[in-house]
Amino acid sequence: MQGTGGFDLGGRVALVTGGARGIGAAAVRALHEAGARVVIADVADKQGLELAAALGEGALFLHLDVAEERAWAGAIRKAVDAFGALDVLVNNAGIANAAPIEKFTTAKWNAVIAVNLTGVFFGCRAVVPRMKEQGGGSIINMSSVDGLRGSPATHAYTAAKFGVRGMSQSLAVELGPFGIRVNSVHPGYVRTRMTARIDPEHLDIPLGRPGRASEIADTIVFLASDASSFTTGAEFVVDGGMIAGIPRR
Ligand SMILES: NC(=O)c1ccc[n+]([C@@H]2O[C@H](COP(=O)([O-])OP(=O)(O)OC[C@H]3O[C@@H](n4cnc5c(N)ncnc54)[C@H](O)[C@@H]3O)[C@@H](O)[C@H]2O)c1
Predict the structure, then answer these.
(1) Which of 91, 194, 238 to mutate to test the pocket of ligand 1 (most atoms within 8 A of CB)?
(2) Which structural domain, as residue segments, surrounds residue 212?
């Protein structure tokens, strides 16, 4: 079956962390529509189960806290047991917090680093043996425009997103010889629960509007597919032009 953007993921199996809502849920829908079987891995059990039920065949929900080191092996095993392979890992789960640096507590720092950076490391480390065994795979790590430039008061978030970008490139170099591609995706503003308090009117977006979660998902489907077979270690900016410059008002 051909789905989003004409990319064919028939026979592929993907696991999407943070797949229960927001950008992750859009990625789950788009991958499924393109023919992949998809594991939704999230701590939001109710939303994850509802999404899996709505998609029906070829979709499965797994409870996974990406920051729980020991939970990862079981999640990979359950995905493979259910669908027979694991070709694509989308490390999308994320949280955010903000405070001026003098008020940025260690607890705030640790919480975001644990999910947004260490969780991505755990995911990559857990999936690589399986991908090596299969002779290849595609790892798609969710960074942000905040992984490309500074942003006030989001110290841990920005540090984590820069870290994800760097880790993706070091992994791309290490894993290229095994046919495993690793790329990072850098969305601009998309209205989700995470960004509900940000008013897009205050953002300078050259395309003049917020992004849609489905537009980030389209890039994820491309990176999961053979259409990107020569692409690794690359940064995919999907931001309506925010990083390119500030438009005239
Ligand atoms: N929305 C934006 O404008 C934007 C921009 C750039 C990057 N991003 C990134 O996109 C990703 C998705 O964000 P979103 O906007 O859809 O946010 P969201 O809050 O709607 O969704 C985040 C998902 O991650 C899950 N999650 C949180 N902690 C988890 C954990 N420990 N283990 C497993 N799952 C966990 C949540 O339950 C939720 O389903 C994040 O990595 C975020 O940093 C978002």
Answers:
(1) 194
(2) 8-238
* Each residue's pLDDT tens digit, 117-143: 999 999 999 999 999 999 999 999 999
Sheet with 88-91: strands ordered across: 59-63, 37-42, 13-17, 88-91, 137-142, 180-187, 235-238
Give the predicted TM-score (pTM) of the model.
0.98
Phi/psi for 171 (5° steps) reads: -70, -35
d(CA 114, CA 163): 12
Residue 215 sits in a domain whose CATH number is 3.40.50.720
Q: Does a structural domain hold residue 144?
A: yes
- Note whether residue 2 is domain-resident: no
And the tokens for 162? 């820069």
Question: For residue 220, how far is its CA from the centre of ligand 1 (angstroms)?
Answer: 15
Residue 246 covered by a domain: no
**Is 157 annotated in the active site?**
yes
Tell me if 70 CB under 6 Å of ligand 1.
Answer: no
Q: How many domains does the chain fold into?
A: 1
What pLDDT is recorded for position 249?
A: 77
Q: What is the DSSP letter of 60?
A: E
- Contact 144 CB / ligand 1 (< 6 Å): yes
| Local confidence band at 202 (pLDDT 50, 70, 90 cut-offs) | confident
Please indicate, yes or no, if residue 155 is contained in any of the structural domains: yes
61, 83, 122, 157: the active-site residue: 157
User: Which amino acid residue places its CA nearest to atom 36 of ligand 1?
Assistant: 18
pLDDT, residue 201, reads 86
Kindly report, residue by residue over 47-77, the tens digit of the pLDDT: 999 999 999 999 999 999 999 999 999 999 9
